[in-house]
Design a protein that fits this description.
Its main location: membrane. The chain is mainly alpha-helical.
Length: 539
């Protein structure tokens, strides 16, 4: 094993750990297959069987309950077609649910008990038919047959169903116990395998650490010697693994560093001389750039004053132009509004004339109503007079005319009410005529005011037209002045930007020269440090 490479040792360590893990996986997979088998027993046998038996017991109970309600508890309810249909539905449901459970049966005991229950169900169904048939002719006999034979037979079937349910519960409990046992065994196996894998990984890691730390210690020691400035040291580990390649590379690197340091010692002297010359030239360029920056700053201040004045003038002319445009726009809007107002007033005037015409018609209709009311008053007076005459004649007739007297009295009362109502209507009609007359006078005054307003609106429209023409004539002149000032402001701004850029460039040049001077000073220090540093190396 001493002649193994690090790669072989690492692969062997991984192989041991992987083998232990694979063994754990195989054993766990076997246990999981058993758990899966037990789970299938629960999901495909016990649970569907229990559900199907529950539905069978429900149908079994519905059958006896319906029979008891019809035969044992009812007082003369007929066994009609609706009842027959209910029993047929329950019978079909029972047969269907027994078949559903039979499809889930796999155990021999389960099949035996199910066969016994099917026989009991057939006997129960035949006896139920006899009870129902007897109920149509002899209800007392049907009740005795129900109590003496049908209910005990149903109880036997219920007990058989309970046996089936208990058997399915035993199967489910056994499968659940198997699942718990297999899971516990799988946990124990996985824990043992994990502990073995940890122990194997620890042992392999310790062996790898011993195979790596000693060569690494020798390499670190050689690097520390080289770090102290001695490039004459070399490694001699005498190994056949990957550290042999590291040994060859380390010794080659030491030779290369030895040559590099020798060359650096020679170059350090040349760098120191060149840096001194560059520093003198950089100081001269820095003085020239500082003078240029001061001149550019003065020119830039003057240019900014010109640009500021131009911007103020442009802003003022823009405000004047905007005010002129707003004035023109507002005047145009006012003119359109006046035109719409004039049109609206014409419509209002036409509507007022239409209202006058409608009021005249309303006045005429009120007069017609007044005539009708007068006629109704006359009819009421005549009716009242006739009812009075009828009452007098009824009094003359004595007992024979008493009923007619009551009718005459009622007619006279209605005639009085009609007279009062027609009087109220007459007063209302007169009030309407007065209101209509006042409305006609008001609409005449309103029409006159509208005509006067139309005339005034026309005069205002002509004045606004003159204002719009004058403002529109002023706008092109203001625009020309504004364009000229904008061109002047743009030129001044461009000059200012150019001077700013020139000032920035000059400032950057000064800063660059200053930084270059600092860099040269630092380079000089570095060159001196380099010369002093490389002089301590042993080559």
């Amino acid at each position: 094993m001493k002649n193994w490479t690090l790669r072989q040792r690492i692969l062997a360590s991984f192989a041991v750990v992987v083998a232990i893990m694979l063994l754990m996986v195989v054993i766990s997979y076997t246990r999981l297959l058993r758990v899966e088998h037990s789970t299938q027993r629960v999901s495909e046998d016990a649970m569907p069987g229990t559900y199907a038996l529950t539905t069978v017991r429900s149908a079994w109970t519905d059958s006896i309950l319906l029979t008891q309600v019809l035969v044992g508890l009812s007082d003369g309810k007929p066994y009609d077609e609706a009842r027959r249909q209910e029993f047929r539905v329950i019978h079909d449901a029972l047969i269907e649910r027994i078949a559903l459970y039979e499809r889930t049966v796999n155990d021999s005991r389960d099949k035996e008990i199910l066969g016994r229950f099917k026989q009991q169900a057939a006997e129960y169904d035949a006896l139920l038919g006899q009870v129902l048939q007897l109920y149509t002719t002899d209800r007392d006999g049907a009740r005795r047959l129900l109590l003496e034979r049908l209910e005990p037979m149903w109880e036997d079937g219920r007990k058989t169903l309970n046996q089936l349910i208990s058997l399915n519960k035993e199967i489910a409990d056994a499968a659940a116990a198997d699942i718990v046992s297999e899971v516990a065994t799988a946990k124990a196996i996985m824990l043992i395998s994990l502990l073995l894998a940890i122990v194997a990984a620890a042992v392999c890691g310790l062996l790898l650490m011993r195979a790596i730390t000693e060569p690494v210690r020798q390499v670190v020691k050689g690097l520390q010697v080289m770090g102290s400035g001695d490039f004459t040291t070399r490694l001699a580990m005498e190994r056949n693994d990957e550290f042999a390649v590291i040994e060859t590379g380390f010794n080659g690197m030491a030779e290369e560093l030895k040559g590099l340091v020798s060359q650096a010692q020679r170059s350090a002297i040349q760098v120191t001389t060149s840096v001194t010359e560059i520093a003198a030239t950089s100081k001269q360029q820095q003085a020239t750039a500082t003078e240029t920056a001061a001149t550019t700053t003065e020119i830039g201040a003057t240019s900014r004053e010109i640009a500021a004045t131009s911007r103020d003038l442009v802003r003022t002319m823009t405000e004047v132009s905007s005010a002129a445009e707003q004035t023109s726009t507002l005047a145009g809007s006012g003119q359109l509004g006046l035109a719409r107002m004039e049109e609206t007033m014409h419509h209002v005037m036409g509507a007022a004339e239409l209202v006058n015409a409608k009021l005249a018609i309303l006045n005429e209709r009120a007069g017609n109503i007044n005539q009708v009311v007068t006629t109704i008053v006359k009819v009421a007076d005549q009716t009242n007079l006739l009812s009075l005459n009828a009452a007098i004649e009824a009094e003359k007739a004595g007992e024979y005319g008493r009923g007619f007297a009551v009718v005459a009295t009622e007619v006279r009362r209605l005639a009085d009410q009609t007279a009062v109502a027609t009087y109220d209507i007459e007063q209302m009609v007169r009030e309407i005529q007065s209101a209509v007359s006042a409305g006609v006078m008001g609409m005449d005054k309103f029409s006159e005011e509208v005509r006067r307003g139309i005339s005034e609106v026309g005069q205002v429209g002509e004045q606004l037209s003159q204002i719009i023409q004058q403002v529109q004539a002023l706008a092109p002149r203001v625009q020309m002045v504004n364009e000229g000032m904008q061109a002047q402001a743009t030129g001044a701004e461009q000059i200012n930007q150019a001077l700013v850029q020139l000032g920035e460039a000059t400032g950057q040049t000064v800063e660059s020269l200053r930084q270059a001077s600092f860099a040269i000073d630092e380079l000089n220090l570095v060159a001196n440090g380099l010369r002093n540093g490389v002089s301590r190396f042993k080559v």
